[in-house]
Amino acid sequence: MQLLEEILEKTDGKICKHCLGRMLSKTIDGEDNVSRAESLNLDLDFEECIICNNVFDKINDELFTKIYDKLDFLKVEFDSFIVGSRIDKEIKKRDDEFIKELNLDVEPIKKEINRIIGKKLENELEKEVNFEKQDIIVNVNLIKNPKVRIQINPIFIEGKYNKLVRGIPQTKWPCRKCKGRGCEECNFTGKQYPCSVEELISEHILKATNGYEAKFHGAGREDIDVLMLGSGRPFVLEIKEPKIRKIDLNSLEKEINEINQGKTQYHNLKFTHRNRKAEIKVSSPDAYKVYKALVECDGAYDKDKLAILSELGEIHQQTPIRVSHRRADKVRIKHVLDLSCEVIDDTHFEMTIKTEGGLYIKELISGDEGRSQPNVADKLGVKAVCKQLDVIEVSEK
Questions:
Q1: If exposure means fewest CB atoms within 10 Å of the residue's CB, which of 11, 51, 108, 229 is most exposed?
Q2: What b/e string do you get for 117-143 counting C-beta neighbours within 10 Å, with b at 16 or more?
Q3: Angstrom distance (rounded) from CA 75 to CA 82
Q4: pLDDT tens for each residue of 73-100
């Protein structure tokens, strides 16, 4: 066999069974690379390999004991995993060069290392290697003395929330004065506000999963003084490094809602995939939001002019003054999809408005010193402000 002769000539016969079988994997049939090499019945010094420097000898009982000890120490719950490995750069370089010189279409050395370790763990732990979606990654460092690190992948929980009182932000706000370090002004909490929609659910999920940290991903956000009513706003809660993955979300949802009664409520909690946190942040052309706004005018308004507001249509909004410190200064074009008004008295009326996502309602009402055109105040010919705002509906499209 010409390929075998080339391999033996290039290595001077100093090649291990793993590497020889791997180089011949497209030429010789066999259960694995070792069995391919053994089927040749060659009288060679398989113990000294100039390609891998006998790195496969490090995949031994001592290594697996380290893996099992690490898993036991972490007490991590998992059903699926993959293996990742690190080897000396010189070994990888030699392997790549050898494959290239012989123009071979065979797997690189790290792939075999990962497969050997993964196969044994699958059999002994009765867990599944899953390259698409895995609960943990077993990282093995085979440089010098082998080391093991377990990466616990996050879980993602999707749901909707209602905010029933004003003064609660969606996510945790670091104290403006100490930037989260803790000071007298924030009572050494590091927070600008005592609680948030995020914290009122995440603390319970973190406890149930024994997770390290939670991150909240909302489909937009309402201002701190705005209620979130109706069917709620979609969100995804990301739990990092959860040691417990199998939790009863129905029971947790009920428990969390009882504890937060009158403040926040969470609905339809379910496990979801990683990409979902990005999907809910992207508005489709059909996405909309419905608001109810209490409008206060600085003088009596002409009630007959309220009908004109239904013709607001296309709105050109420059980034509002109140958020200009954290948002890019540009003009956004949004549309009012539907609008109706209910008279309260000579200086107040209630407005129900359906808009494309991303339209600033407070500025639509006041005009924001001319940055929002057209606007309610100009149409009515009086100064007007939004005294109270509630989100009634957030579309799921």
A1: 108
A2: bbeebeeeeebebeeeebbbebebebe
A3: 18
A4: 999 999 999 999 999 999 999 999 999 9
Alpha carbon separation from 216 to 153, 202, 203, 233, 256 (Å, rounded): 16, 8, 12, 12, 16
| 75 C-beta neighbours (distance < 10 Å), count | 9
CA angle, 31 then 32 then 37, to 5° = 105
Run of H or E residues at 92: helix 89-101
Positions marked active-site: 223
216, with CB counted inside 10 A (0-12, 13-18, 19+), is buried
Structure token pair of residue 222: 């309402």
Cα–Cα distance measured from residue 16 to residue 8, given in angstroms and rounded to the nearest whole number: 11
| pLDDT confidence of residue 283 | 66
Cα separations in angstroms, 347 against 75, 343, 375, 382:
63, 9, 17, 10
Cα atoms in the Cβ-side hemisphere of radius 13 Å centred on 83: 25
Confidence of residue 285 (pLDDT cuts 50, 70, 90): low
Question: Residue 336: how many CB atoms within 10 A of its CB?
Answer: 20
Placement of tokens 């049939």 in the chain: 29
